[in-house]
Amino acid sequence: MAAIVVAVAFISTALAQEFRWTMVTGWPAAHAYQLMVKEFAESVERASGGRMVIDVHPAGAIVGAFEVLDAVDAGVAEMGHGWLGWWMGKHPATNFFASVPAHLEAPMYMAWFYDGGGIELLNRLLQDEMGLNVLARPAGVYSAETFAWSNRPLRTIEDFVGLRFRTVGWWADILRGAGVAVVSIPGGEVFPALERGVIDAGEFTTPWGDRLLAFYEVTRYFTGPGIHQPTTAQVVLINRTAWERLPPDLQAIIEIAAEANTIRSWSRDMVMSMEAIDYFAEQGMTVVKIDEEAQHALRELAWAHIDRVAAENAFSAEVWASMQEFYARFLEFDRLMLPVRPPPQGAE
């Protein structure tokens, strides 16, 4: 009887515990990604009955966008949110978990993460390869990004030569190899850089996010498709010491909320980005599409670069092989099981 009383008291104490965490992100305060992160935090608070409160801070409020990972590792914040490709200088494999040019699209990424071994590889990267006191879960998968915002049309690789172009991650290295002057700055600095002529063109996010940052006010051309980033995979980063202090039910709530946020971010972004492209046209933007020949050439450049990255260490090679196998299987499934799409309206 005494043992039962002690057990009940222990459970009651655990359920009565309240936690207030600080979360730092790499996103501007008004950006679409930041709005979705705040929804994640609100979901955790509601599901926990107020026992778990997460205070979300945008880039620059506590640390800069590119300092989020270090802040979580050091315990400056219990939680962070960002795009792992920002930290490829720490390990070449980080970009595999952020975006792969001309490769996995949003549904493919989600399937690979949740049921193709991606989450396990992600945490091996952070903990075993990088030695960080951090664990991670997917928390946001978005549709294809805008290829470029510019003041001249960009349809071929040659059109990029001589441009000062903002981008990050592998795409920065790939464009440098093609003769482009790449400038890597946080997303919150892109608008003023375009406005002042510090850069000639650039990309940051999906049409939805770009609309909120008003890039259409300082450029004339919107370019697709997002071959450089057919999806944007984001993660919630959690300090492992803080995580281990949480009772199991709050850990489960965070994991479930992150998974729900991943699915919702994709669905909402699809709708809002379609509306955004219509809005850009209404504002007088010229919508341009990269030539198919250029798309094939860019894919070849991108995959050749990734092959070189994968050859640098065994872990990168393991992740790339996992993704390539999954991508090939998905394409076979897609060709067999999905019907041919109708031609565009007005096409003969």
Tally of DSSP β-strands:
11
Radius of gyration from the CA trace? 21 Å
The percentage of residues in β strands lies in: 15-25%
Main sheet record: 6 strands, mixed
The SS-based structural class is alpha/beta
Task: Give the termini distance in whole angstroms.
Answer: 80 Å
With strands numbered from the N-terminus, the spatial order across the biggest sheet is 7-6-8-5-9-11
The level of helicity is: 40-55%
CATH homology-level superfamily of the largest domain: Bacterial extracellular solute-binding protein, family 7
Structure description:
The protein has 348 residues and is α/β, with parallel strands linked by helices. It has a six-stranded mixed beta sheet with strand order 7-6-8-5-9-11, with helices on both faces. The protein has twelve helices and eleven strands.
Layout of secondary structure:
Layout (H helix, E strand, L loop, with lengths): L1 H15 L2 E7 L6 H16 L4 E6 L10 H7 L4 E4 L23 H10 L2 H12 L4 E9 L5 E3 L13 E3 L2 H9 L3 E3 L6 H7 L4 E2 L4 H6 L8 E4 L7 E8 H5 L3 H35 L3 E4 L2 H19 L3 H24 L11
Parallel strand pairs: 1-2, 1-3, 6-7, 6-8, 9-11
Antiparallel strand pairs: 3-10, 4-10, 5-8, 5-9
Helix pairs in contact: 2-10, 6-11, 11-12
Summarize the structure.
By secondary structure, this protein is α/β, with parallel strands linked by helices. Helix content is 47%, strand content 15%. The protein has 2 domains: 19-143 and 230-240 and 248-271, Bacterial extracellular solute-binding protein, family 7 (D-Maltodextrin-Binding Protein, domain 2), CATH 3.40.190; 148-228 and 285-315, D-Maltodextrin-Binding Protein, domain 2, CATH 3.40.190.10.
